[in-house]
Amino acid sequence: MSTPRIVSLLPSATEIVCALGLADRLVGVTHECDWPPEVAGLPVVTRSRIPADASSAEIDALVREQLQTEAALYTLDEETLATLAPDLLVTQALCDVCAVAEAEVAAAACRLPGSPRVLNLEPMTLAEVLGSIRAVGDATGVDATPVVAALEARIRAVAAAVARRSRPRVAMVEWLDPPFSAGHWNPELVHLAGGTEVLGRTGTASRTLQWEEVVAAQPEVVVVACCGFEIPRALEDIGVLDAVEGWATVPAARDGRVFVVDGSGLFARPGPRLVESVELLAHLLHPDAAPMPAGVAVPVRLEPVGTSYIERD
Fold it and tell me: What pLDDT was estimated at residue 198?
């Protein structure tokens, strides 16, 4: 089969396509696609209706409204899409608040010349993420086996390095205002990295929490991986911890093991970089057993100072 012209409607799909060596076949991406660097400058076929200066609470309210009214937060630029003449659209049906809605993509595909194929990716676990890489390979005529095998080897190496270590209790939160657990593949990443996730469950959706629940779980490590936020943006919300009753009694807060990580690039995208996420978590939980992975954003470690938080040097 000839290699298709590909439009990616997901940042994770963009990363998968490039990991398979198909960057030169990628003709369009989303407004959020920023990795790998060579995708910069490609035509953008989506836009967001979320104001750039919206607070976390305002974003949460917009998402909840979308769930009630089915008003899309992300829209497709069909005019640009038509000019790109794709043969394959890679999208997802997992979460309509994270990307263009599946129904909108399907309808647009029917209106495009040639009726391009639509490949939906909706992984909930790490194994399904690796399966997504294979699916993109199958759809493009590329053997994904070497890429997947290399990722699996790195995962096994991390698991072996921490296998005999005690497992700290870990609370991963993917939003701060209000707090959310980190579901889907993230609890599995914690387990592979040598920890025990106390809030989320592998293969299930993230859920809204009460801070009382986080405090009651008494995590020894807290990982703040805000969905869609890089570290500087997540730090803008870290002050909400000041008002959490009982926060000083949480072992992670007391011992300075609260980490802010790149939730956007490393934990929210079900693509090949989740392996780097496992390596990073292993380093945070067991620094003497697992090195810091190269090329990833260095987490910010927080410690309590009176009633406020500062960055640890």
Answer: 98
User: Which pLDDT tens digit goes with each residue over 7-17?
Assistant: 999 999 999 99
d(CA 185, CA 203): 6
Token pair for 215:
């405090």
pLDDT in tens, 33-84: 999 999 999 999 998 777 777 888 888 777 777 666 655 677 888 899 999 9
Q: Which phi and psi (to 5°) does residue 270 adopt?
A: -80, 75
- Neighbouring CB atoms inside 10 A of 225's CB total 27
pTM: 0.91
* pLDDT tens-digit series, residues 280-310: 999 999 999 999 999 999 999 997 634 444 4
Beta carbons of 31 and 98 less than 8 angstroms apart: no
Location of structure tokens 């100072």: 305
What is the residue type of 83?
T
Distance CA 113, CA 215 (A): 55
**Hey, which residues does 256 pair with through a beta bridge?**
none
Q: What is the mean pLDDT of residues 235-257?
A: 94
Domains located in the chain, CATH noted: 6-122 (3.40.50.1980), 167-311 (3.40.50.1980)
Quick check: helix, strand or coil at residue 310?
strand
Looking at the chain, list the stretches that DSSP marks H as alpha helix, in order from N- to C-terminal side.
11-19, 56-69, 78-84, 102-111, 126-140, 145-161, 186-192, 211-217, 231-235, 251-254, 274-285
Q: Please work out, in degrees rounded to the nearest 5, the angle formed at the alpha carbon of residue 268 by the alpha carbons of 245 and 194.
A: 70
CA-to-CA separations, 242 to 165, 175, 246, 257, 301, in angstroms, rounded: 32, 16, 10, 16, 16
User: Do 38 and 19 form a contact (C-beta atoms < 8 A)?
Assistant: no
Q: What is the C-alpha separation between 24 and 252, in angstroms, rounded?
A: 45
Q: Are 21 and 142 in contact (CB under 8 A)?
A: yes
Q: How many Cβ atoms sit within 10 Å of the Cβ of residue 235? A: 17
Among the listed ranges 29-43, 51-65, 167-181, 211-225, which one has the minimum average pLDDT value? 51-65
